[in-house]
Amino acid sequence: MSMVTVGQLINHKLVTAPGTMNAVEAAKSMSAHRVGSILVEHDRHIVGIVTESDIVRKVLGTGQEPSLFPIGVIMSAPLIGIDERRPITEAADLMYRYGVRHLVVRKADAVVGILSVRDLLRPVSTDDF
């Protein structure tokens, strides 16, 4: 019986934005791309992640004007990463250990996707077992 790997469940749709983008633009971008997170880029390197819950807790929860919040200020960093070949049980353990809901998935040195808590709940066909 083979294990289900991170690579079988990841969302390959990577949405990136500069840290100067504000929280309103980020929320619109997430909505347009139908994703729950944006990777924050600086000098062509991915330096952090902003999620829907970051925007709710760190921006909307303050009662201040959301367009005044650059995502570089509210992003989570450093990113917690996992190799695409690792078992999903290891991904779940990492999320639990670090208290995060998203992992950056790597293949060699390249980021190839995002794995969210939601992805772990997606059924995998029995052909994969």
Please characterize this protein's 3D structure.
This protein is an alpha/beta fold and 129 residues long. 32% of the residues lie in helices and 25% in strands. The protein is built from 6 helices and 6 strands; from the N terminus they run αβαββααβαββα. It has helices at 6-9, 23-33, 52-58, 71-74, 88-98, 117-120; strands at 16-18, 37-42, 45-51, 81-83, 102-107, 110-116. The strands form 2 sheets. The protein has a 3-stranded mixed β-sheet with strand order 1-2-3. A 3-stranded mixed β-sheet has the order 4-5-6. A hairpin with a 2-residue loop joins strand 5 (102-107) and strand 6 (110-116). The model has no long low-confidence stretch (mean pLDDT 91).
Q: What general form does the structure show? A: globular
**Which sheet architecture does the biggest sheet show?**
3 strands, mixed
Low-pLDDT regions? none
Strand order of the largest sheet: 1-2-3
| Alpha carbon gyration radius | 15 Å
